[in-house]
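Quick one: structure for this chain?
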Amino acid sequence: MAKIRLQKIIADSGYCSRRKAEQLIADGLVRVNGRPVTLGDGADPKTDIVTVGGERINAAETLRYIKLYKPRGYVTTMSDAHAEKPVTDLLDGIDERVYPVGRLDKNSEGLLILTNDGNLANAIMHPSHKIKKRYRVTVRGDVNEDKLLTLASGVKIDSGVTAPCTITILAEEENRTVLEFVISEGKNRQIRKMCEAVKLEVVRLKRSSVANIKLGMLKPGEWRDLTEQELKGLFSQLGLNAKKESK
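Got it. Here's what it folds into:
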């Protein structure tokens, strides 16, 4: 069997994303049969022993694709072993090691996709696919046409100028306004920083969809496997072929 790139083996196992796996290799935390490796090295997952920080990586046997309503207070980072409330604590009865696709900060809530399919995770997060994500955002402050135009056109935040997006007013109340953001980027805390740039305070932020996957009727803390129809639509958008061994 031809050797497979180590970052792919690690990502396919559900340990982390391919990008994170590359960082782990660069940091010298990955070994094959006890020997240190470098980026570009490969291995045979059936015969070689791949470890990360001393922990053996096992090839994923059953692929899982899950959607979860992340409540506020939970974190999506898997790199912090001491995180107070990792979202994976909500997945009772899951034998496979799945991980979140993308970020949703501690104070935000809503749709989160989790999987052990590294190819899918990498495709969703890759900027070239421009996957649309929809958010319901409640803000305090004066929402006027100038601010909406600025937000939609792109604003400068610490990680650069945001790409054009779509913003719609859903409701206007006495002290707050409910907006819908549709963005195709995944910068860290992007919407919060965008609002801060135009002097709007985010009171609540809820993600309602990623690509064709919608939060639907899930309640905070609830999850379910994606349906065959949801998976078919998602893989189609990404130009990928669904794998038969998925559950």
